[in-house]
Amino acid sequence: MMRHFLGVDVGGTNTRLLLMDDEGEFSGYRKMATADWARQADPLAALGDLIARHCEDRQVAQVMLGLPGILSRDRSRVLSL
To answer: Fewer CB within 10 A of the end CB, N or C, for the chain?
Structure first.
């Protein structure tokens, strides 16, 4: 079975998910409102469920997350994540 890698870009407005396989082919693009999962009682569990559902029929080797953050003006410190 081919391995897949999942990229998750969490933005303030939308969350995007995209799979890449061992051969560098992309598939399974999904975009949804971040509020759909982030406003749940347990947002971390809701994000985990979203990822698990997106990977149900594929062997996912790694998940990479991009998270929004606020940096200091000189971009040397994370102020909020």
So the answer is: N
Judge residue 9's burial from the number of C-beta atoms within 10 Å of its C-beta, 0-12 exposed, 13-18 middle, 19 or more buried: middle
Strand (E) or helix (H) holding 60 = strand 59-66
First to last CA, the chain: 36
Burial class of 79 by CB neighbour count within 10 A (0 to 12, 13 to 18, 19+): exposed
Per-residue confidence of the chain (81 residues) as pLDDT tens digits?
Answer: 789 999 999 988 999 999 999 999 999 999 999 999 999 999 999 999 999 999 888 899 999 999 888 888 888 888 877
